[in-house]
Amino acid sequence: MKNDAVRIIASRRGILSLIACFLAVGLVASCSRYVIKDSSIILGKRTWEEWKSQAGWASYSADSFKPLAANIDSITNLVASKGASFVVFGGSWCPDTVNQLPVIFKVFDMASIAPDKIELYGVDRKKKEPSGTAERFGITRVPTLIILTDGIEKGRIIEYPLLSWDDNIISILSK
Is the pTM of this model over 0.85? Predict the structure, then answer.
């Protein structure tokens, strides 16, 4: 009888673990469920200007994001001293990308990052794009910002930064 009770408890824990796992997978795949209707799906490499002209979003500004001037100066100096470049992946159909991509590009603009130091790729809902770059970098969620120094991945920020985009970029470049 005691063994039966243990099996029932273990079975319930197993079921709860399974449910928790399904919930976690559902949360991780946030952009696969929440899709912006009537948006163009941008695929492949684009400049930020091309993205803005093709995405059809209501806004491309990040007016509420106000990074510290000292952080922007740090990014400018770190990018120059470390030979940093950036690869950004986004889904024009994805609400996370709609919210975060303008913030990322505001940081780039304020820090005077040269356009040739930034590669921007649009992916479909399966996180694929024609050149295979997204697959090569193992992109599973968007937006993803990959920071390279001398062509080697130094770090990445996936969907949302832990602190802020500027603080996380500084943290990665300071390693």
Answer: no
